Amino acid sequence: MILPDTQSLPDTRAIAIPAVGVTPLAMPLVVKDGASEHHVAATVALYTSLAGDRKGTHLSRLVESAMPLSRGAVTRAALREVVADARARLDADEAFIAVQFRYDVKKPAPVSELSAYVPYDVCLYSLDGPGGLEEGMTLTVPITTLCPCSKAISEYGAHNQRGRLAATLALAGPAAHLGLSPWVGALEALGSSPVYSLLKRTDEKAVTERAYDTPKFVEDVLRDAVIWLESRDDLSWFRVRISNDESIHAHNAVALYDAARATRPRSRPRFFDYLDLVQP
Fold this sequence. Notes:
By secondary structure, this protein is α+β, with helices and mostly antiparallel strands. It has six helices and ten strands; from the N terminus they run ββαβαβββαβαβααββ. The longest helix has 15 residues. It is elongated and about 80 Å long.
């Protein structure tokens, strides 16, 4: 019995579609971070372009291209293989993958050294197209900030808040592995203090005093992040967003920096255009 291949029928409207795909594709994965491995529950988004003379995309082939990720560690090299395979299977000009997951790190408290898990949000990207391969990731880390203004004007105390630092990074160089832990540690150190899940009294004292000694506006955190990211030769572009859940205001404080719009701009990668497709 021969079944009709409807997706391969010609289309006369001549409208090329930049991205057609599947999301969220749930998948248990192993993320290789240097020498360690983390088991995560991930969602995968996989897209390819569609030529204007073709009716549809064979979405089942995209699922087939993504499935090998579940049979080994998720590395930059593994993501490259998925997008290359998707392009070949669909005879597409371009393919893009995004893999989202919560990255739980067992983190010791600063004094007692008792450990508990702190979650970080990670999204990994890979794009393969006529312009070549592009790779990147977004890391979102929690931070504590203490208000410099509140400290300066108050006779005692100063208000603080928990914030989120989100950095979208375009990776340069051929490295196969992700090395998430160093990135996470460096980013969360940019706040007044890191955030912990388990704190005893001695730890709470240390964290509170550290934040008090390192007051920062969202602008301070962002500028320190830009200086550090500008110094790295393994990035071709970056975007940083800081958002504080203000403790004494009915609004958030937000600061944003895009290296494509800076004084010395860096070219924004093509994968950035796909980021609004990642969410289901």
